[in-house]
Amino acid sequence: MITKHSCRPLLALLLMTTASVGVLAQNVYRIVGPDGKVSFSDRPPAEASATAQPARPGATTAPAASALTSLPFELRQVVARYPVTLYTGADCAPCASARSLLTSRGVPFTERTVSTNEDIAALQRLSGSSSLPFGTIGSQQLAGFSDTEWTQYLNAAGYPQQSQLPANYQAPAPTPLVVVTRAAPAAAKAAPAQASDAVRREAPPAPVNSGPTPGNPAGIRF
Fold first, then answer.
1. Is the Cβ–Cβ distance between 50 and 184 less than 8 Å?
2. Do residues 61 and 112 touch, judged by C-beta distance below 8 A?
């Protein structure tokens, strides 16, 4: 009997055929518009700037292309067909066990951290549960952690049982599941130039009072 471990009670296990190919590890963006309206999307706005700083910058939905090119051909083919993503939380012993299995076996994977309410909501939409760890191998979903079950699916996907990673391989750093962005407000119209800025007039020079004159015999200065 397979025993599973998770950080929270397991609510649902969604199983899909391993022959299906799909990437479920895409970023989820929480977009805050100029009017304060919040929306969610799998694509950032065209003119967005990040307002939430990831705990550790780095990974996208799959290992970087530069990292993949350093992999042996057969392993690179498996990663392209069945990318592995691990969803983890802080202080989660089963998450650490799942990470250890993938690392020791030499499986390139992307790690998504779940720590905010937005992360949890996105995980529930993705997996149907808030249990961690959660993993995907291609489109196959694995809820909770069982060494036996995860090993079986990795074997079925074609991942080698012994690490074939090159010595210089660097795993992508974990990133939050939900990336918060703020939509750029419409460009403010340039204020019309002030007349005083557009045309600068020099004040006439003050008259020089050189003393009494026929028109000012007292030599009064103002």
1. no
2. no
Is 168:70 a contact under the CB 8 Å cutoff?
A: yes
Give CA–CA dist 158/103, Å, rounded: 16
**In the numeric block, which tokens belong to residue 36?**
């304060």
Q: How far is CA 178 from CA 37, 52, 215, in A?
A: 17, 9, 84
39 in Cβ contact with 179 (< 8 Å): no
Looking at domain 57-177, which of 3.20.20.150, 3.40.30.10, 3.40.50.720, 3.40.50.150 is its CATH number? 3.40.30.10
* Residue 212 φ then ψ, to 5°: -60, 140
Which amino acid, 80?
A
pTM exceeds 0.85: no
Structure tokens at 190: 């340039």
- What residues does each domain of the chain span? 57-177
Amino acid at 176: P
- 74-87 residue pLDDT tens: 999 999 999 999 99
Judge whether 133 and 98 are in contact, CB under 8 Å: yes
Contact 183, 45 (CB under 8 A): yes
